[in-house]
Amino acid sequence: MDVNEYLGLFLDExxxxxxxxxxxxxxxxQTGSQDAIQEIFRSAHTLKGMSATMxxxxxxxxxxxMESALDLVRAGKKESNQLLLDTMFSAMEQIEEMxxxxxxxxxxxxxxxxxxxxxxxxxxxxxxxxxxxxxANVFTADLYxxxxxxxxxxxxxxxxxxxxxxxxxxxxxxxxxxxVFDRLQExxxxxxxxxxxxxxxxxxxxxxxxxLFVSQESADVIEHAVSQVSEVESVHVTPYATxxxxxxxxxxxxxxxxxxxxxxxxxxxxxxxxxxxxxxIRVNLERIDRLMNLFEEFIIDRGxxxxxxxxxxxxxxxxxxxxxxxxxxELQSLVLTLxxxxxxxxxxxxxxxxxxxxxxxxxxxxxxxxxxxxxxxxTVIDEIGDPLVHLIRNAIDHGIELPEVRVAAGxxxxxxxxxxAYHGGNRVFIEIEDDGAGIHVEKVRSKALERGVITPxxxxxxxxxxxxxxxxxxxxxxxxxxxxxxxxxVGLDVVKNKIESLGGVVTLETVVGQGTKFxxxxxxxxxxxxxxxxxxxxxxxxxxxxxxxxxxxxxxADILTAHxxxxxxxxxxxxxxxxxxxxxxxxxxxxxxxxxxxxxxGNKLVGVVVNDLIGQQEIVMxxxxxxxxxxxxxxxxxxxxxxxxxxxxDSNDLF
Length: 655
Description:
By secondary structure, this protein is an alpha+beta fold. It is about 40% helix and about 25% strand. The strands form 5 sheets. A 6-stranded mixed β-sheet has the order 14-18-19-17-16-15. The chain has a 5-stranded mixed β-sheet with strand order 6-8-9-11-10. A 5-stranded mixed β-sheet has the order 20-12-13-22-21. α14 packs parallel to α15 (about 380-400). It is elongated and about 105 Å long. The two termini are about 60 Å apart.
């Protein structure tokens, strides 16, 4: 088998199972849920099987030890304890390193797992291994079984009970059991199994199972045949005797339902789910990029076609263009979803990380995640993980205090860390907020002056939040003690640069003694969006429809002044006005009545004053590139149907 052909699938599915185990481990630690144990066992078993099939023995061996320990807990022979949980968390970190090594062309043997394996074996070895006694009849006597056996004996068959014990080193128990059944099929017919066949398929047994079997061969022949199967440690074959005089039932050996394991789609999953999974395919990201590029060009050409149809004024042409527009609108929503992924792909790794970091530095932290379903472009999702990791680690290390310090300050000993994501206009906002000590602004100001980052005049003029933002300066830190995690500030310049390279912005708010909130704002790049086209002078601008509350007409007499700002009364609320012509220094004619586009960001509103409203249109967002980046209130550009370029207004910057 050419494993390279399946490498991508293996890597994707491995990540899914790793995440599942991490989630369930946290659930197990917090609630002791038996369902969590089953889920962890299932994922560990699948990981083991996949790795063994692909030839990655290091991963297979480690997951085998984990599975063996979990099997004892599932069977009620051992109780889960903190030592086992810590070992499993360590094992999952090591498995992640192995998978990362495989992704870069290795074999996953780059991690020293001896200590982890020893911990698992210590847990397993402390359990007495009693050899199960082979009873005369393991199977409960019933009318059906006795009838089948009686009919089989009348046709020259004998009934046997087999006790099969697999080796302790077996990797794929279900596969070995299947080979045993396959060998038995050559010699007779399987009547029943203990545990049931489905449980054996799903490896819900330890190392042994029993088979009720009818054959014309002798016990010695049967025992010899089964013992030849690899990793079968022992086979005991004993006669099976019926226990009741059953009435004759028309059941022949040929009609016995043979309990032979069948290839499984996915262990422990309902058939409906298996069918749904079969309809899911993985598509190379480069192909989606090509599709997006082609569709973007098509949308631009559609805009030109609409303009030409309006100029020609032919009803049949207009009708055809309208049909094309309806079809492409539906196609557009489908194409867009191909690149969009929920941000939970990133967020899911954080609960285990928070647990690990907090435990290492003896802190108690509760992580609350909201908005994990918020969708973001796949390219951004792939890149935003590391900056968020750095911000979260610093929030735990430098933001949240030690339990005794928090109690002394009148706070709960467990710190709170919130991770939120939500859409705002044509951007996605991610917030990391802690209820820790906050950033000591005066300490930052003092360090900045000491290092020459700012001048005394600048230090006096800057607001507290502006001073706090200085922690993003290269190499700037206020930490008194450098730890493995570092104090807040070390490396934050890298975080800021990474976010800005994605077209994003990072800001913070802090209150000493109450906590700090970082906000990361990211654009929906490579997107086709609905926008309102507006005009200011001879220039056309696009405002994303998702940020528009409504449009209205405003008279000059309705403009009020509050706190030296121009505002207007919008349904009983004073809303500030922003003039596009002033913002971009555009000369326009003076009007006594003009359109206002009311845009929102959360609970805040702003009225954007324009010259004219052109109408709604689907546009393709294009980044401005490095030469034009950093222009206030502009997030990108689009090409209109007549070939002109229109700038896209970033309504979030208007606030």
